[in-house]
Write a structure and sequence with these properties.
This protein is an all-alpha fold and 427 residues long. The protein is 59% helix and 2% strand. Helix 6 packs across helix 8, helix 11 packs across helix 18 and helix 13 packs across helix 17. The radius of gyration is 22 Å and the shape is globular. The N terminus is likely disordered. Bound molecules: nitromethyldethia coenzyme A (NMX) and D-malate (MLT). The site of nitromethyldethia coenzyme A has 21 residues, from helix 17.
Length: 427
């Protein structure tokens, strides 16, 4: 079934010719300019700092953190996630009318098909929520407009339209999928039904089964903070790579989610909260500064990373963590998990600086998010990557639509052998 997608569709259509002309002009005038070189250390070291991707939805400034279309994320916290999807895609914030329209487009009264529930329910008991989320998307992939129109011979410059249709359907379905996976996996009772009158974050919160206005505010803030993180994070990069071979958004986003599920990426929210709870259990309450120092050194001496600290790009504190800390100070007083997180955020960086390895010793977004979910009664830590995933889907989907609009080619870098480096590398 085709959905009516007028406002976003029309806006993007009005920009596409200019975007394509700008890209062509850039290539013609500056196509040969060098923007990065790759050392052997970078090639074997996860391509850190290699500038080899173009992403216009957002950038991560090493000192200032996430900047979405020129706007620092901390200035966007009173916005709804739907406004941010608009911003990511269109390049500016929506007017009040446009905000209403985009919210209605995302919240269209569509259901996750019954077959998807059957697929998710058939997974082994104890499956991880992130696996269930990813599998849920794959089970829904047969509804993809991109897949259908591809088999009908869709021309390449039409791809963005079908990708946007899939993106809106997918974004509208993710809160239902994510919330119902929570209720199913942790036996919380029957599924709640999507209410198109709700905004995206409130709908998600309500379907989780939590009735609390402060929680809905926290959900909105978390979704805005985690909506995008430029193009090079594992989740977005994976999604972009899979999308570059014209795999449809269900396949591409599911692949991105699988990347986010790793402990060095989004799973770190779960690892962080477990680490905080372990410290509280060990010391019988909120640990003192000296106890935190001891606990951190023990983790490092055991050859483990300190979860929720460090970053591949950021070199200063992560504003996404700062936002969570401010929210917690206003709403979570007396909560031992939050108080431990706050205290650790002063002590752990000093230990990491003494340890001398991590280029960024500060807490990242994941160190705060678990405390937020925990405060509102979501104590099942396996679940913590899921709200991050469905928020980051906004950035992944905006990037996919824009890349199809620009006709971005297949991602296919070269690899070299170790022998090639030994005998042929120059410089
Ligand atoms: N605890 C202990 N050691 C660390 C940490 C940490 N939190 N962060 C970095 N290091 C080590 C790192 O393992 C590396 O050691 P070695 O040379 O022995 O391999 C060294 O410091 C240099 O690493 P960096 O260049 O600072 O970090 P890199 O860019 O390689 O990795 C992370 C970035 C985020 C993967 C890394 O900081 C880390 O493992 N942090 C803990 C996990 C985490 O919080 N991940 C979530 C990231 C944010 N997110 O939302 O996804
Ligand atoms: C993210 O938000 O995706 C993380 O901070 C990881 C990253 O940017 O590499």
């Amino acid at each position: 079934m085709m959905r009516v997608m007028a406002p976003l569709h029309a806006l993007l259509a009005s920009q596409i010719e200019r975007m394509r002309a700008d890209r062509a002009a850039l290539l013609a005038s500056q196509g040969d300019r060098v923007i990065s070189e790759v050392t052997v250390a970078q090639a074997v070291g996860g391509m850190r700092d290699v500038r080899a991707l173009v992403c216009d939805t957002s950038e991560v400034d090493p000192d200032r953190g996430l900047i979405i279309r020129g706007l620092p994320v901390l200035g966007l916290l009173d916005r709804f996630p739907e406004d941010i999807f608009f911003l990511l895609l269109i390049g500016r914030l929506p007017s009040a009318e446009e905000a209403r329209d985009v919210r209605a487009e995302i919240a269209a009264p569509e259901r996750v098909p019954e077959t998807v529930w059957r697929a998710v329910e058939a997974m082994p008991r104890g499956s991880r929520p992130m696996s269930m989320l990813s599998a849920g998307l794959l089970a829904m992939e047969h509804e993809s407009v991109v897949a259908k129109r591809f088999s009908e011979g869709m021309p390449r410059d039409e791809y963005w339209r079908a990708t946007l249709e899939d993106a809106l359907r997918l974004l509208g379905s993710l809160p239902t999928l994510a919330a119902c996976i929570y209720r199913l996996r942790y036996q919380k009772g029957p599924r709640f039904v999507h209410d198109p009158a709700n905004d995206w974050a409130r709908d998600y919160g309500a379907m989780l089964g939590i009735r609390n206005e402060t929680f809905y505010r926290a959900m909105r803030m978390a979704a805005v903070l985690q909506s995008d993180h430029e193009g090079g994070n594992v989740c977005a990069f994976t999604c972009h790579t899979v999308g570059s071979v014209l795999s449809n958004p269900y396949l591409a986003v599911s692949a991105g989610f699988n990347g986010l599920a790793g402990p060095l990426h989004g799973r770190s929210a779960q690892e962080s909260t477990q680490w905080v709870l372990d410290a509280i259990a060990r010391y019988g309450g909120v640990p003192t500064d000296a106890q935190i120092e001891e606990f951190t050194w023990e983790t490092l001496r055991a050859g483990r990373v300190v979860p929720g600290h460090g970053h591949a790009v950021l070199r200063g504190p992560d504003p996404r963590f700062t936002a969570m800390l401010d929210f917690g100070r206003a709403h979570f007083q007396g909560d031992a998990v939050f108080e431990t997180v706050e205290r650790m955020s002063h002590v752990v960086p000093e230990v990491l600086k003494k340890h001398g390895k991590a280029k960024n010793p500060y807490p990242n977004v994941d160190f705060g998010m678990g405390a937020l979910w925990h405060h509102f009664g979501i104590t099942e830590m396996d679940y913590y990557t899921v709200p991050f995933a469905i928020s980051l889907a906004m950035g992944m989907l905006a990037q996919l639509v824009l890349n199809r609009a620009l006709g971005s080619p297949i991602v296919r870098p070269r690899s070299v052998t170790t022998e090639w480096i030994r005998t042929r590398a120059r410089g």
